[in-house]
Design goal:
15 helices, globular
Length: 352
């Protein structure tokens, strides 16, 4: 047993929830962002402005999303070069065969292939053959065996969530908004979760609401401590920056979370806000305005295929209120109240 432990340590193979559930998942989201999401934005701009070049570039970026995710995961797992490069084929196969649940297939299969590749890396004199062959064989073989089933399972969960939100928009609006918003602030990837579950439609709209409540909420609440820098870094960056402060004083997390429980059902019941753009956008909130661009992309697609007559002023009002105005007002008010009660003290939201 000691020899096995020593071998795993030498190979930097760590079986832990943090390594796979936080590091790998977070990296996968970055791979998705740098391929599928950016590609979708570019192709949308290209199609709207009549620029074929941008549309083609966007399509190229979208087509390599599986490989981008796998390489990002390999980077998070500290894979040596030959393993990392071999994950290009693994990611492509897992994503292609996983269908709508491709990202979850990529996550699971890329982790297995990466760790197997690391185990044999530089252990033989013909490493240049052994390492990529094993990594690709194991990864693509697993893709053919289990990716369709993984993809179907993930997709089925997403279908249930979307169906439940359609049936019970109020309660599911609260549940989805709060859970995805909390995931965004935790050191895990809400974007990857939404993409994996294909969280679109009304459920996607609730997810957008929850993420915006966390980001805009913290951005407004921390003005006293961090001024413009905190407003921008959290409002357009990520509320995850407050995670250290949340561990010190969990009460600072209550206003954005309560706000998400309010804006979620407002989004689903009043404005019928839907995310019919890329599912990954559902978990991005106001980060680079990706959530709002995703909603707009969905509107454009719906108008083009005839499921939506036009983009109305009511649509825009709902998006702006849910994304910015309501979270700001709610968290500003609750923040002042919590400070008055002594639940939040000066410095509690200070960023280093």
């Amino acid at each position: 047993m000691e020899k096995v432990k020593a071998f795993l340590k030498r190979k930097d193979i760590v079986f832990s929830a943090r390594r796979y559930g936080i590091d790998a998942l977070g990296a996968m989201a970055q791979g998705l962002f740098a391929s599928l999401l950016v590609g979708t934005i570019l192709s949308t701009i290209g199609s709207q402005l009549g620029i074929p070049f941008l549309t083609e570039v966007g399509d190229f970026a979208k087509s390599v999303s599986g490989s981008a995710m796998a390489v990002a995961i390999g980077g998070a797992l500290h894979c040596p070069p030959l393993v990392l490069f071999s994950l290009v084929a693994v990611g492509y196969s897992a994503n292609a065969l996983g269908g709508a649940g491709g990202p979850l297939s990529v996550l699971i299969i890329a982790i297995v292939a990466a760790e197997l590749g690391k185990a044999v890396s530089k252990e033989t004199k013909v490493d240049i053959l052994v390492t990529p062959c094993l990594t690709i064989f194991a990864g693509c073989g697993l893709s053919m065996l289990v990716a369709p089933a993984i993809g179907t399972a993930a997709s089925s969960i997403g279908v249930v969530i979307r169906w439940a939100t359609e049936q019970q928009p109020f309660w599911m609006g609260i549940l989805v908004s709060v859970l995805v918003g909390v995931a965004l602030t935790l050191p895990i990837s809400s974007a990857a979760i939404c993409q994996t579950l294909s969280l679109t439609g009304l459920a996607g709209g609730a997810a957008v609401a929850g993420c915006c409540a966390q980001m805009v909420g913290f951005a407004v609440m921390n003005w006293k401590e961090n001024k413009m820098g905190g407003l921008v870094s959290q409002g357009l960056g990520t509320s995850m920056l407050q995670m250290g402060n949340i561990l010190k004083n969990p009460r600072i997390w209550l206003p954005p979370t309560i706000a998400s429980a309010i804006t979620g059902p407002v989004a689903t019941c009043l404005f019928k806000l839907e995310m019919n753009g890329p599912a990954i956008s559902s978990g991005m909130g106001t980060c680079g305005l990706v959530g709002q661009i995703g909603v707009y992309t969905g509107w454009v697609s719906d108008v083009a295929n005839g499921t939506k007559a036009a983009v109305t002023a009511f649509d825009w009002a709902g998006l702006i209120l849910i994304s910015f105005i309501l979270p700001a007002i709610l968290c500003w008010g609750m923040g002042k109240w919590f400070r008055k009660m002594g639940w939040i003290k000066d410095g509690d939201l200070k960023l280093d």
